[in-house]
Design a protein that fits this description.
Number of strands: 11
Low-confidence stretches: none
Largest sheet: 5 strands, antiparallel
Helix content: 40-55%
Order of helices and strands: HHEEEEHHHEHHEHEEEHEEHHH
Shape: elongated
Distance between the termini: 84 Å
């Protein structure tokens, strides 16, 4: 092991790991190599700032790991392989090769969506991130195979964003390994820029919004289109089945760092079904058949504006009870019409809507609603 460098140490791990797994890793030379020597070599040969970056090697805790790894963490993002984004060297369980991967922690996805759906969401998030970063051609590997069915291995496979594979019989020389790492580090830093001071959890929540059938206020056209599309596949449900108060949703931080309240397409579709796809200002208002849904085209409008969430800290405003079905003309009118016309609409709608608002815990007076619409008393 003289003249150590990344190439020689990686080769040493691949050639000896399966044999060393048969013995205790306490005071084991290979264990020390992964946990201490390789991180120290990376700091030295890559000229890395230890205050900015953390490097951790692991061969398991208590028992030898199926997949040994060396993780590289930007401390401002994370210092753990279970959350955030990081670079990691992952050795295949059969030691036939190893990966350099830009990866992400799986804990958020499993907690937010459960084990099965969480895996799918992690892959979706990885795909979205690839689309937002100019992936170097050398790292366009979209899937990795660690040759293991262990939970940790599957988590790494689903969390993989981009990377490269090195076969045991074709490990490049040390200079190429260093070049590859520095190139992938650039993509890691681009991802950090996309975060824009958001935590990994906040960023994931934002980029998965549309995949979760949710839209922010500044995506009005996309929101209405999504509602229209969803109307073609949803089964008719009785809105009264869910007429109980719900706590306020978690806010989403957009690309500019502003907090927004997410709107669920399913809630809007339930509201349109409740109205029979007829305008709730006047059911006889003419419209047209939607190409997407085959239903009379109408739009979803939050009677108490979703932007007023600060006035309702304890309840969810994004409820079918608070969403009214409007023809396109009435929807424009309630936003942009003269006050005289809008007052008549709002007063009529308040009589219809208020009883169902009360059921879901949204307490609001007519004068408050008028104030929200910018109409003086």
């Amino acid at each position: 092991m003289n003249n150590k460098n990344l190439e020689s140490t990686f080769r040493y791990v691949l050639n000896n790991y399966l044999t060393e797994k048969q013995s205790s890793f306490e005071k084991n030379e290979l264990s020390r190599e992964v946990r201490k020597d390789i991180p120290n070599l990376m700091y030295e040969q890559l000229n890395l700032d230890q205050k900015k970056y953390a490097i951790t090697g692991s061969v398991g805790k208590g028992n030898w790991a199926t997949i040994p790894w060396i993780g590289f963490f930007d401390r401002s993002i994370t210092s753990s392989a279970t959350k955030g984004y990081y670079l990691v060297y992952l050795f295949k369980s059969d030691m036939s090769g190893f990966y350099l991967s830009l990866n992400q922690g799986y804990t958020y996805f499993s907690k937010e969506y459960g084990a099965k759906l969480g895996r799918e969401k992690a892959r979706t998030a990885a795909s979205i991130m690839r689309s937002k970063i100019n992936v170097p051609s050398k790292f366009n590997l979209k899937k990795i195979d660690l040759a293991s069915q262990k939970d940790l291995a599957i988590g790494y496979e689903n969390g993989h964003i981009m990377g490269i594979y090195y076969d045991i019989n074709a490990i490049p020389d040390n200079s190429v390994l260093i070049q590859d790492f520095n190139l992938l580090l650039e993509s890691y830093q681009k991802l950090k820029t996309l975060l824009n001071d958001r935590s990994a959890e906040e960023f994931n929540r934002y980029i998965l919004l549309n995949d979760d059938n949710a839209y922010l206020e500044n995506n009005e056209i996309e929101y209405q289109q999504a509602v229209d599309r969803y109307s073609s596949i949803v089964k008719e449900e009785d809105p009264s089945l869910d007429e109980k108060p719900r706590p306020r949703k978690q806010l989403v931080i957009d690309e500019s760092g502003r907090q927004k309240y997410p709107r669920d397409v399913k809630e809007a579709t339930t509201a349109l079904i409740r109205a029979g796809y007829k305008c709730e200002v006047e059911s006889e208002h003419s419209t047209f058949l939607s190409k997407s849904s085959g239903q009379p085209y109408c739009e979803a409008h939050h009677f108490v504006g979703i932007s007023r969430y600060d006035n309702f800290p304890d309840v969810d405003l994004d409820r079918a009870a608070n969403i009214i079905c409007l023809c396109a003309n009435c929807h424009r009118k309630i936003h942009y019409g003269v006050d005289e016309d809008r007052v008549d609409m709002i007063e009529k709608l308040y009589e219809q809507v208020n009883p169902r608002l009360e059921k879901v815990g949204i307490q609001v007076t007519l004068n408050q609603v008028k104030e929200y619409y910018g109409i003086g008393n």
